[in-house]
Amino acid sequence: MSEHVVCRLDEIPAGSSKRVTVGKRDIAIFNVGGRLSAIANRCPHEGAQLCLGKVTGVVRADRPGQYRMEREGEMVRCPWHGWEFDLETGKSYCDPQRLKVKAFDVAVKPGSDLVEGPYTIETYDVQVRDSYVVLTL
Fold first, then answer.
1. Which of 3, 132, 134, 136 holds its CA 20 to 30 A away from the CA of 54?
2. What is the DSSP letter of 132?
3. What is the separation of C-alpha 89 from the centre of its chain, rounded to a whole number of angstroms?
């Protein structure tokens, strides 16, 4: 698996999300209280951008009229039709065995860990003879 630097951490402040593209993958990154999660950005229902969805929890009820919120900040609700997905696993709340979006590993690393170097470049002698370009390797 390859790592891709997609943005600086300050581009996704706590409580926000960001859409990034890596190759042909459209990915939504969420920052929930300093915890980052990354999932595929397209809802499998009709393709809405999940990065525009509301981060929420799960409503539980033991009996009518008595409910409580659980798992606050662990689910994202599709902005079009309200389908909910777990931010860590990508699994759907309503049918976790059959329906999910791809979840990705995401981490924060200091810039000093990402720097490679020193950078060098190979150079080649180039000569023009008549109307041909010849590289000397």
1. 3
2. E
3. 12
Look at the block and give the residue holding tokens 């809405």: 48
CB atoms within 10 A of CB 85: 28
Q: Which uninterrupted H or E stretch holds 113? A: helix 111-114
Is 41 in contact with 80 (CB distance < 8 Å)? no
Split at pLDDT 50, 70, 90, the class of 94 is confident
Residue type, 49: Q
| Entry pTM | 0.77
User: Which residues are registered as beta bridge partners of 58?
Assistant: 70
State the number of CA atoms in the 13 A half-sphere of 33 facing the CB: 5
17: tokens are 């999300």
